[in-house]
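User: These chains co-purify. Model them together.
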Amino acid sequence: MRILLWAAVALAGAAGWGALALARGEPVSAAWLIVAAVCTYLIAFRFYGRFLAHRVTGLDDRRATPAERLANGRDYVATTKWVLFGHHFAAIAGAGPLVGPVLAAQFGYLPGTLWIVAGVVAAGAVQDFIILFASMRRDGKSLGRMAKEEIGPLTGLLAMVAIMAITVILLAVLALIVVKSLAESPWGVFTILCTVPIALLMGFWMKVWRPGKTIEASVVGVILLLVALVLGRHVAESATLAPLFTHSGVTIAWGIIVYGFIASVLPVWMLLCPRDYLSTFMKIGTIALLAIGLVLVRPPLQMPALTRFIDGSGPVFSGALFPFAFITIACGAISGFHALVASGTTPKMVRREGDARLIGYGGMLMESFVAIMAMAAAAALEPGTYFAMNAPLSTLGGSLEAAAGTIRGWGFSFSPADFQALTASVGEQTLLGRTGGAATLAVGMAQVFSRAFGDGLMGLWYHFAIMFEALFILTTVDTGTRVGRFMLQELLGHVWEPLGRTSWYPSSALASALVVAGWGWFLIQGVVDPNGGINSLWPLFGISNQLLATVALCVATTVIVKAGKARYAWVTLLPLAWLLAVTCTASWQKVLSPDPKLGFLALAARAEQQVAAGEMAATLGRQVAFNARLDAALAVLFVAVTLVVVVSSAREWLLVLRGRKPALARETPFVETLYAN
Amino acid sequence: MRTDVGALLARAAAVVRRLAGMPDYAAYVEHARRCHPDRPVLSERDFFAEYLSARYADGPTRCC
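Assistant: Joint model of the two components:
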């Protein structure tokens, strides 16, 4: 019976992949995409996940977990596996799996889909699971500390620096996505601005008026948020109010920078924590709604399986299919950042070791499914609409007619009148050149929702999607700035001890200002970039995230080797080798390519030539050249740090394998569980 | 009947709290009474404050 069931799952999955791969001309239904992905996940979880749990790691239900041994009622709390699965998923899934696939859709839906599914099964979920396992066996230690203890102090320090630098780039690119979707959009700006007083109200509710009543405050917050969403339409339609909330990208970027600083120095209960709750509820709710909507509507995928842009000439971002499809989609396939959560709050809450397979491996499969839904929503748009929204304005040409000419030149049909009608239906003044994925996804989601749950509400659904994305991106910006501040204070504390005191106000303010200035610099650079900013920042983010994954996989391999299971080390070594190949090729091309659209150094040289020839203003030219060189230096730094980590890890593996060092895992000793089951 | 509904609601609230990473005061009180009967139990207000400072102090709680 069991065998029959799994055979049926395998057959359904194969049928799905077949339908996707063999479609010629006719649009395929998104249903096949979902069937193919889900069946592959089920089989991977049942067979590969089981292999990882039983053979590679040897999860042992008789062994007491940190949540049992160190229970303190606060962070070490034994939690039922499905609830922790939801908690872990809400913590790892953010804007990454939604944005990456939308950008990668410029290659067609097939390359991204294949990488999302194959990547998660063989790399991303493996990384998350093994790091969760390793941290769980070490009292919930962080990735940085495990790197230090298992590989060496230098590696630990480098891992800290890498995490810090990656956080800065991540925050900048996420904030850029918000800016791109809110610029010149009074409805969006009004709704997002409203989230600040709503969060403050919730904060005072939970802390002052009704201490600890978090659920009550959240219900009130969600209701007020929906009211603000509806009111936003009236603001956008009012001749007096709309101009107050219509702002350029630069103004909004400065607003986010100032907000990020304030949120980082205010006490957490006032702003950060209430927004965290709001965004968690919105995220879980909206993702569930999107899944239901996609199943009900099953839209046809209008984007071809492959587009002509696989050669690297794509307008959304430059670079050929290899390696850039694998850089653009990080979250959803493999994301190094997850290793920080899998070695943070989650390992302290696992009730039984056996649960780690569902939480670590399964949680990442779930995030991958979100990425597949984002890909489906983007590929369901007309390709002409997709490119009009995602190519930078400088490529499209200033007007709708010019854009129509450019897009038809690429071989896609495009009707300016239809596009104008779409823009009006979502209550915006313009949708041209809204690179960054958020707006595209919002249009895709609005079409699915309005078809599934009633027509005529396109505008409301669109802004609901924008609000949901902006809300949790800004929450990541808040928490990320705060985490960056703590890491920086720890580093600064080595220089002058008082700077390390997190409760000393001047030190907190200084460290916050430095972190905000770091990501703020890259944010402003992205906003004023004539090529749209995403083209330079998103690949940099992808590279840094994949390199952090490389560091995590080094730690994971070390843990496996030291546990005396070197014969299974291929489970992390294969993804490690693949990621190294991808990131090194991508960094090489981003730094050294002679094409100024692709290579940072070539871009800098071209900007200087343009200034010399009088084609570009001298200040802008100098800025572009400087920023391009800075990006190049950063890419080189990332690769250098990672290579040092890889080499020092490999040395450690060889020492153990040759018997010069004992294969000794630094696990907390075995204690038998007192739980009955 | 009424207590059944109340208990069910309380359980649902506990699940929602854990999902969103909210503090669970009831669970803390239970833990404190059982494991540290010698120490005073924090008030809900103090527990909330302490929970927040622990949760947002170390490592990222949210991803990309």
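Chain B touches chain A at residues 13, 15-25, 27-32, 35, 43-45, 47-64 (CB under 8 Å).
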